[in-house]
Amino acid sequence: MVIGSVFIAQAIEKNNWMTEAMHVEKVTLGIEEAAAARGEVVDSATEAQAAGDTIREHRRNIASTYEELLAGGRFDPLNPEQLSYAQALNMENYLYLGVLGFGVTTIVIGTGVFMIVTGLALGATGVVLLQLTRGTS
């Protein structure tokens, strides 16, 4: 049960850390204008997924693949099209890693809850079995 509690505490701590980190970046893509004006930013898995999908769509309007963008050449940071593509790819990856991170913390919380429930069930079973063995002696 203690390990389950540690899992839950660590997951909540990491979830809060990711939320704070996303607040610092102030990404508002996909947030309604009124909400963004109130300070609402992308700070959840659902919002990050939607923003990442939007950026992916825009990035693919520049070029469908990285190979197509380079056309057999090398990346040129002075080429605005290639630079925009790379920046979009970076932002897209940042948002998708956020989605992954929020998903992992959710799984870890679920695992912690499972550990606590299992510990309680095993403890209760042990108490019942102890009572049954004492009653038959």
Write the layout of secondary structure elements.
Layout (H helix, E strand, L loop, with lengths): L1 H24 L7 H5 L7 H18 L3 H5 L9 H57 L1
Keywords:
137 residues; mainly alpha
Instruction: Note the gap between the termini.
Output: 31 Å
Report the principal-axis shape: elongated
How much helix is in the residues?
Answer: over 70%
Q: Structural class per helix/strand content?
A: mainly alpha
Largest sheet: none
- Total of helices: 5
Q: Work out the count of structural domains.
A: 1
Question: Strand portion, in percent?
Answer: under 5%
Give structural notes:
The chain is mainly alpha-helical. The chain has one domain (2-136). It has five helices and no strands. The two termini are 31 Å apart.
Summarize the structure in short.
This protein is an all-alpha fold and 137 residues long.
